[in-house]
Amino acid sequence: MDAERLRAFLLTLPHVVETMQWGNNLVFWVGDKAIGGKMFALMNLDDPTEGRTHAVISYASSPARFPDLLELDGLYPAPYFARIHWIAVEHWQTFSTPDWENELRQAHAITLAKLPPRTCTILTMPRTAQRRLIHDRRQVLATQSKQPALSKQEGRPKKSKNSKPASKSPAKHQKDRGTSAGTPRSKRPPSK
Fold it and tell me: Is residue 44 part of a domain?
């Protein structure tokens, strides 16, 4: 198995979209990310550097299968994604072609099952309606990204120099601390 053959296989799975992100990485999504799709595989197309571990692909796995996969040679927890049970693979020879296809079908199924209901509804729409909705959503996202974001300070109302925070009245404050009418709780007569 190699990157091109695996890419061709992944694109045959239902609702799969690919993007190029984070340098030279092909990211495979179940559903477009503009409508709430989720990643299920990440293929690293960079050449390995000497002396460093280099994953050729990382993919989603189930919590039950994750420890079993880590027992295999050439597999390790995917950096940044291990907490959500992703596996990183060092070389293409780790699995045979049918095993690769099985592993990635499972990753796809796991991720498809985690999609929000709204995204699943969109994926059941006719293809032309999906494309129109994705196009519209991308336009909205592009418009939002062009607008300057408010910083935390800009989003808050300004305080005047003479304003003080609202405080409780002294009697109410004492009652909140467990005292009543200025008498500490320890000196009150026991209630019957």
Answer: yes
Buried b (16+ CB within 10 A) or exposed e, 29-66: bbbbbbbbbbbbbbbbeeeeeeeeeebbbbbbbeeeeb
Question: What counts of helices (H) and strands (E) characterise the chain?
Answer: 7, 6
Q: Exposed (0-12), middle (13-18) or buried (19+): which is 7, by Cβ within 10 Å? A: middle
**Element containing residue 41 per DSSP (H, E):** strand 38-44
**Is the separation of the CB atoms in 115 and 38 below 8 Å?**
yes
73 occurs within a structural domain: yes
Contact 77, 70 (CB under 8 A): yes
pLDDT (tens digit per residue) in 20-37: 888 788 889 888 888 888
Low-confidence ranges of the chain (pLDDT < 70): 47-53, 147-192
- Number of domains within the chain: 1
pTM of the model: 0.67
- DSSP lists the bridge partners of residue 20 as 26
| Helix residue spans in 11-165 (DSSP H) | 66-70, 97-113, 117-123, 127-146, 152-155
Domain residues for the domain of 133 are: 3-139
At residue 158, what are phi and psi to the nearest 5 degrees?
-75, 145
